[in-house]
């Protein structure tokens, strides 16, 4: 196979197009994750009372988290669709489509009547729109990170891969602040009646901004090189499943711990500290806000480090350290100190978790070739997310109830996922010195 070196690799140094791609990757992804995490926050704090008011607190939270998990089931479907057309037609088109689907779904969630108004249909509509959100974010992640990594100058793929990853703390920060402001500016009755809807409706304005920014970005140069030589895979998803199934399984396993840990700290803990530890809900929201701000430093730092020492050692550190930290985390959370609880969440979500999530974009992308890169990275990421993150708040809540409110079951759960992710990382190959199409022209 031959490629155009000029088309396949960006020019050396940071051009205007590099900065534009970095900004678009960050801003567009931040908007998508704002929409997605907004649901998670409200699933912990609002939906049990608005859509499932007839259950006791534990059961209501379980049901709310079940609707939250439903969105994850749709993520692999979104990943497959975006992977196929992203590898066949282009990365940019998938970015635009996912943004629009996510935005419309989020706005409509803010308009759903409550259980008291339309009964069980409120929950049905909520689940349907959550599925649409899951489909959208399933296509978003792969397209965004592959676009950013393929635009990166040689030797900076790790750093560039962190730009869409930065959309996660940004989206989490925006969504948490939006809920915190709405919650803090009115009494509880008004917030549960209509105040929670405002952050969802604000998504309409954010989507307009996101579409405008993404429409100005050029297509991935690596994909353009493949397209110009008419070398696109006929069935990229099938090629991944048949020819790269081992890499796909490793990718899925590597995703387990990272995604579960993230949603345990950012979603499950919001419920746990209120229902089990007796803290005000604002304490958890404030801790997540602080953690999101810290993430703007830790995510690019860990990603940059992989450009220097390799993807594998950084990822292995994250697997081992994140697994072991779950024990002191609960000790710090149960201390009764708001300060200790906040520090524990920051360490778990940023100092340790980000050593996994930061490098994940570039590591997953580099494990696959250009012709099937979007399909492989998307499917592996999204299946891993379904089997870990999507179920984590639900499983953790059930384990907490099964162990009489003690976190022992949750700790065992995290250790099992940690062993799987660590083993898969050991088996995965190192990729940071791999040559990509056209790299040799700019060494």
Describe the fold and architecture.
The protein has one domain: Growth Hormone, Chain: A. It has helices at 5-8, 16-45, 47-50, 57-73, 75-88, 91-109, 115-118, 121-151, 157-165, 167-184, 188-195, 197-201, 203-215, 221-228, 236-243, 245-275, 281-309, 311-333, 338-352, 354-366, 373-387, 392-402, 408-427. It contains 23 helices and no strands. The chain has 443 residues and is mostly helical. Helix 5 (75-88) packs antiparallel against helix 21, helix 8 (121-151) crosses helix 21 (373-387) and helix 16 (245-275) packs parallel to helix 21. 79% of the residues lie in helices and 0% in strands.
Structural class by sheet pairing and helices = mainly alpha
Amino-to-carboxy terminus distance: 21 Å
CATH class: Mainly Alpha
| Tally of discrete structural domains | 1
CATH topology, which one?
Growth Hormone, Chain: A
Task: Calculate the mean pLDDT score and round it.
Answer: 84
Summarize the biggest pleated sheet: none
List the helices and strands in order.
HHHHHHHHHHHHHHHHHHHHHHH
